[in-house]
Q: What sequence folds into this?
């Protein structure tokens, strides 16, 4: 299999989702640490402007957003399956509430007890830059930055329902993990990784037993690469990954034309390139970077907007 390179940082919950999937699949991968906030001068040459974490690189193909990254990993390493046919719609239903649980977990961590731990870890100067960076991240998109009220009304009800479901079976959809588990795991991991707020989950025994089962899957085997190595790898790779799904052009744009692609929710930084493929699953553009050379950048079709550049 081609080299899997993950651009991520240790504190990132969505990155933890993919690290845990690597563990489930028993995969070897290259780990490139990215900054926790902007600027990200060694990531943007690959993505063309997309800044969120994580990003998956396979040679000169760059995959943005974990919805697409999970799909690509499952295609390259089908066993054990993330999306068993009999559970596809159930996985999609869990994927649809992933952001709700994540948005509920964030203000839960930012309660005074959690904030104190974060401040100790990051220091006041980085913490202040972090707050400004995240305010900017939520500028211009359809999603608002989740506040304490959202955390209060959404976190415990969802956690409680997961705990009850997990009292009946070891994983959310049965005896083996699926994408549903990884979508719900990372926000719980975010809470459990912060000693100030982690005890809030102690009472949810079935959820905690499930959490330990997923944690025990590990992260596969990672070896560290520098960002410079990853960029050089993109430049040196002639092969490209196959398109995923039959052509379905977005409204008003044609393959071959110059387009802008951006997420619609938050982190809406625009990426410009030539559209080379579009399907129900992905939007694929080609762009050239001074350092990385000609790269192919993939985005999920759902949740991203494509417009003529
Ligand atoms: N829909 C995206 C969400 C990714 C996301 O929000 N990642 C967070 C980190 S967990 C992020 O990028 N925050 C801003 C940053 O790291 O620059 C996905 O599934 O990949």
A:
């Amino acid at each position: 299999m081609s080299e899997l390179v993950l651009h991520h940082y240790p504190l990132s919950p969505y990155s933890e989702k993919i690290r845990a999937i690597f563990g489930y699949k028993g995969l070897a991968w290259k780990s490139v640490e990215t900054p926790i906030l902007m600027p990200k001068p060694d990531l943007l040459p690959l993505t063309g402007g997309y800044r969120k974490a994580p990003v998956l690189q396979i040679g000169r193909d760059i995959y943005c957003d974990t919805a697409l990254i999970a799909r690509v990993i499952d295609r390259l390493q089908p066993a054990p399956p993330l999306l068993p046919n009999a559970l596809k719609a159930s996985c999609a239903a869990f994927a649809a509430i992933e952001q709700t649980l994540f948005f509920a977990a964030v203000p839960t961590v930012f309660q005074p007890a959690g904030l104190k731990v974060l401040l100790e870890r990051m220091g006041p100067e980085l913490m202040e830059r972090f707050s400004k960076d995240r305010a900017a991240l939520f500028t211009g998109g359809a999603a608002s930055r989740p506040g304490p009220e959202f955390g209060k009304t959404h976190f415990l009800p969802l956690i409680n329902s997961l705990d009850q479901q997990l009292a009946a079976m070891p994983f959310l959809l049965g005896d083996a993990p699926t994408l549903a588990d990884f979508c719900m795991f990372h926000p719980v991991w975010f809470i459990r990784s912060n000693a100030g707020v982690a005890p809030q989950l102690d009472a949810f025994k079935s959820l905690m037993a499930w959490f330990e089962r997923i944690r025990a899957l590990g992260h596969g085997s990672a070896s560290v690469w520098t960002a410079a190595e990853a960029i050089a790898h993109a430049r040196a790779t002639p092969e490209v990954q196959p398109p995923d799904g039959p052509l379905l052009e977005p409204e008003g744009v044609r393959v071959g034309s110059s387009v802008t692609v951006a997420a619609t929710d938050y982190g809406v930084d625009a990426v410009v390139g030539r559209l080379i493929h579009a399907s129900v699953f992905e939007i694929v553009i080609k762009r050239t970077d001074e350092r990385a050379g000609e790269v192919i950048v993939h985005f999920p079709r759902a949740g991203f907007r494509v417009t003529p550049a």
